[in-house]
Amino acid sequence: MRILGFDYPDDCWFDLEHDMWCRLLTDARVQVGITAFGTHLSDDIYMCRPKSKGTALEQGQTVAVAELSKMVVAIKTPLSGVIVEVNPLLEDTPEVINKDPYGQGWLVCIQPDRWEQDAHNLAHGATLATLAEARMRRERMDFPSEPRT
């Protein structure tokens, strides 16, 4: 789905407050990344260091740290669980997050421990468009006329 020029894939669930997405994989793991809108707000990401494999997280805790052009930011996890995989591309090519946020630019895979409970705090389906647009408009910015991934 496209909302104000930004992609919000139908197979993802969204933590709109933190501009994060998660995608259920076939093996019950959940892939996590930054939304296209989040990468737009961040501009270029020069470094991204996710927490290590085996780290247990609660929804809303820091899953990674990223260095942007003028600041370092904490990236919050949209769900609870244990990190079971870290994207190896991020070490040498963190810009992949900006170029392909829903593909090769994912951050970590998490083995969720309370998906049903956490999913209630995520946007998906029929309510996504309204909630995402409201979130984006709070930024008071001009929206791109060019399609963004």
Strand content: 25-35%
Arrangement of strands in the largest sheet:
3-4-5-11-10-7
Number of helices: 5
Radius of gyration: 14 Å
Strands, count: 11
Q: What characterizes the major β-sheet?
A: 6 strands, antiparallel
Q: Structural class of the secondary elements?
A: alpha+beta
N/C terminus separation: 10 Å
Uncertain stretches of 5 or more adjacent residues: none
Global mean pLDDT = 93
Order of helices and strands: EEEEEHEEEEEHHEHH
Roughly how much helix do the residues carry, as a percent range?
10-25%
What is the global morphology? globular
Q: How is this structure best described in words?
A:
With 149 residues, the chain is α+β, with helices and mostly antiparallel strands. It has five helices and eleven strands. It has helices at 36-42, 89-92, 96-99, 115-119, 128-137, and strands at 2-3, 6-7, 12-15, 20-24, 30-34, 45-50, 56-57, 62-68, 72-76, 81-86, 108-112. Strands 3-4-5-11-10-7 form a six-stranded antiparallel beta sheet. The chain has a three-stranded antiparallel beta sheet with strand order 6-8-9, with no helix packed on it. Strand 8 (62-68) and strand 9 form a beta hairpin. It is globular and about 40 Å long.
